[in-house]
Amino acid sequence: MDHIDFCTIEQKLDVGVLPTLVPHLNGVALPDLVRKVELPFARREGKPDLAGSYAGLLDERVRWPGRHYLGDPVLSWFGDGDTVLLGCVCSDWGCWPFTAMVTVEEETVIWCGYRTGHRDWDYRELRDVTFDRRQYEEALRATAR
Fold first, then answer.
1. What is the pTM for the complete model shown?
2. Which residue of 3, 57, 101, 140 has the lowest C-beta tally within 10 Å?
3. Rounded-to-integer distance, Cα 51 and Cα 98, Å
4. Domain coordinates in residue numbering, the chain
């Protein structure tokens, strides 16, 4: 089973330093995991700084008791049930969204089908993750303000 934490991080965005919500998978910030996968594609485009240039989410509705990370997303880019996990460093989540399909089962929560809103990059190297639902929901509850 994978482990998740939803961490409130002060991030420098284009509009100033703001508290954002950043998922950490098995102790690693999601933007760092995504950067490793995106870097070869971004380099081929001549834009290596684009890889992993995500920020956590600012929208308070993604925090507990919201159900954004529990299969009822309030931020969706593709409109097919995807959940925005990260947004752009400009502070607009829709400018450079990173998404996954979030499946909530009785005992687990699964993230798979990763995509970004503006590139057709291959995210197969970023493996699907399965969380114990109890631990996942405890991590979400910690995001309440």
1. 0.95
2. 3
3. 11
4. 4-141
